[in-house]
Amino acid sequence: MKTGLSKETLVLHTGNEIDQQFGALSMPIYQVSTFLQDVHGNTKGYEYSRSGNPTRDALEKAFAVLEHGKRGLAFGSGLAAISAVFMCFSSGDHFIVSNVVYGGTFRLLTKILNRMGMTVSFVDTSDLGAVEAAVTPQTKAVFVETPTNPMMAVSDIRAIAAICRKGGFRLVVDNTFMTPYWQNPLLLGADIVVHSATKYLGGHSDVLAGLVVTATEELGEEVHFSQKAMGGVLGPQDSWLLMRGFKTLAVRMEQHERNANVLAQWLGTQPGIEKVFYPGLASHPQHRLAKEQAGGFGGMISFELVTPELAEHFLSRLKLISLAISLGGVESLICLPAKTTHASFPPELLRSLGINDRLVRFSVGIENVAELQEDIEQAMANQ
Predict the structure, then answer these.
(1) Looking at the chain, which runs of residues are DSSP E strands?
(2) What is the DSSP letter of 362?
(3) What are the C-alpha distances in Å from 315 to residues 151, 164, 318, 376?
């Protein structure tokens, strides 16, 4: 494991010094399903790509370094990664989960895992009292998104980790929005970190992937058993694409945040926009906490327009910013969470959480920021 390097250097020089045979600077793609054995059971480290593949192995080791963990595991999607983590638990176990959470995670918990006898309490994890009040004798884990998708609420990872240690259960953090470039939950006391690597880690809207990193080898073995047993592994081609994405993570995340800071301040001054949600704003209720536990504020902004009609008008007129259901790519993407990413939530729950037909989620890209502003201005015009 590399130590003592800056984060800018670490993302570029982790997992790239692999090929000892030919000296390739880029990890080769081992596009293979099975491996030769000299005699039965005598392998050269790999036997079948579901249980292990050299390209995926290089990715997993590299990402464990970036997240300051002991074991990394790569999956076919972010939800496959989250599912494998929850499959480490048993029927009757209880989880405390951020009440504003990605819609796919909500669907998994309420439509799939509930069939297996697992129970969930959705609470505002930015409220430590609410987290403590939700603990039961059956609680086995707290699952936190921070910042939350799409309301951008920030939870105190270190404080929640202390609650988990006291209760003898685990803390799992979805770090998709921040990436290990800005935030390292394991260093703050979390046990497991999950990512939809489809987003910032890949960074180019061309790969579907999920990643898990554990704080200990023992936890890593538990998740690896789920990975091997359920088979939701990442293929070698996509593993290679993710490693390529890591190399530009630093420059991309810096530019995403520069643009987001400018736009968050500017959006708050625009007619037709009632409220802006971004942890980098001094007005954000957890601004100080976000500044303390992370190295930056990221590239995600949500904002609320005055009417649903204006929101639809605005989204239909954008030219540079793309209407699409994803985030974290180099290009700017925008959507209405109530109708897309969070459509699995019951309508009354969406309303109670503030996710309405006026709320827009904006994944700020790395384009020229002035041109992004011009696109927003023209789309808001002629209402």
Answers:
(1) 71-75, 94-98, 119-123, 139-145, 170-174, 192-196, 210-214, 273-277, 300-305, 322-323, 333-335, 359-363
(2) E
(3) 19, 42, 6, 9
Domain residue spans of the chain: 7-247, 250-380
**Rounded Cα distance, 311 and 304, in Å:** 8
Whether the CB-CB separation of 280 and 268 falls below 8 Å is answered with no
Strands (E), 229-278: 273-277
CATH topology of domain 250-380: Aspartate Aminotransferase, domain 1 (3.90.1150)
Catalytic residues: 50, 102, 174, 199
Total residue length of the chain = 383
Instruction: Give tens-digit pLDDT for 308-352.
Output: 999 999 999 999 999 999 999 999 999 999 999 999 999 999 999
| 132: DSSP letter | H
pLDDT tens for 169-199 read 999 999 999 999 999 999 999 999 999 999 9
Rounded Cα–Cα distance for residues 269 and 209 (Å) = 37
* Contact call for residues 111 and 227 (beta carbons, < 8 A): no
At 146, which amino acid appears? T
Per the rule left: phi > 0, alpha: psi between -120 and 50, beta: everything else, 168 is left
The highest-level CATH class for domain 7-247 is: alpha beta
pLDDT tens digits along 197-221 = 999 999 999 999 999 999 999 999 9
Q: Where are the alpha helices (DSSP H) in 32-121?
A: 54-66, 78-86, 103-107
Q: Which tokens hold the place of 7?
A: 């984060």
